Amino acid sequence: MTVTGLTFNPFAENTYLLYDETKECVVVDPGCSDAAEKAKLKQFISDNGLKVVKLLNTHCHIDHVLGNKFVADTYNVGLEMHEADLPTLKAIPAYAPSYGFTNYEEVLPATFLAENDTVSFGNTQLKVIFTPGHAPGHVVFYDEKGKNLIAGDVLFQRSIGRTDLPGGDFDTLISSIKTKLFVLPEDVKVYPGHGPSTTMGEEKRENPFLR
Fold it and tell me: What is the pLDDT of residue 211?
C-alpha cells in the first residue's frame, strides 16, 4: 500500500490517499476547504490514474471533514466513520462560520465502522482500531501487511491529540495509545493528522507525554 499525504486548510491537516497496485484508492479525512485545494486533490487522483472507492474519517472535527462533501459527490462514495462521532459531525454546521468556513456542506455517514472491522480495497485490508480520547468516536486504520497506521489526531511525532474539545478525555486518550497502539510493532510507520510521520518505536522512546 502506498500512502500519500496532502496538507490542507488553515489547520494544516493531513489528508491521506491510500492505494495499491490495483489503483483502487481510499481517501481518509479530506480537509480540502476551498476550490484550489479541491482541485489539487482531484488532480493528484487523476494524474495517478486512481479510482476512489471509499471515503473514511478517523474522527469528525471540522478540519478533517471539510472535503467530505466534495469527495462523496465527485467520486460517488459514502462516508464511513464510527457512530460515536456522529454528534461531533452534526455539531459542525453551527460553528463552522465562526472559523470562516461559511460554505461548509454536511455529509452524513452511509456506513458505521466498529472495532476490529476490516476495510478492504484492491489487494489491501485495513483493520479498524477504536481509539477514543481526542474524540469520542475516533478510529485509526492499520495496514498490518505494510506496517502503516493512519493515526488521525491520537498520536503525533512527540505529541498527542488535544483533549480539551467536547468529548475529549486525557486519561482515555493515554489508555487508547498505550493499550491499542503501543502493542503494535515498533517499526510501524505512523501517519498523523497533523505534522510529519513517525514510528511507533520512536514514540515509545521519545514522546514526552507517554513516558
Answer: 84
Low-confidence ranges of the chain (pLDDT < 50): none
Instruction: Give 201's DSSP letter.
Output: H
Query: CA 102 → CA 73, 95, 99, distances in Å?
Result: 19, 9, 8
Rounded CA separation 135/60 (Å):
8
Q: What is the pLDDT of residue 182?
A: 98
Task: Give per-residue burial for 41-54: e unless 16+ CB within 10 Å, then b.
Answer: bbeebeeeebebbb
Sign of CA dihedral 106, 77, 33, 156: positive
CA distance 205 to 14: 24
| Structural domain of 100 | 2-206
How many CB atoms sit inside 10 A of residue 11's CB? 17
- Which pLDDT does position 181 carry in this prediction? 98
User: Does a structural domain hold residue 65?
Assistant: yes
Would you state the pLDDT for residue 208? 97
Q: Is 95 exposed, middle or buried (0-12, 13-18, 19+ CB in 10 A)?
A: exposed
**Claim: this prediction has a pTM higher than 0.90:** yes
- Say if residues 53 and 71 touch (Cβ distance below 8 Å): no
- Tell me, yes or no, whether 22 lies in a domain: yes
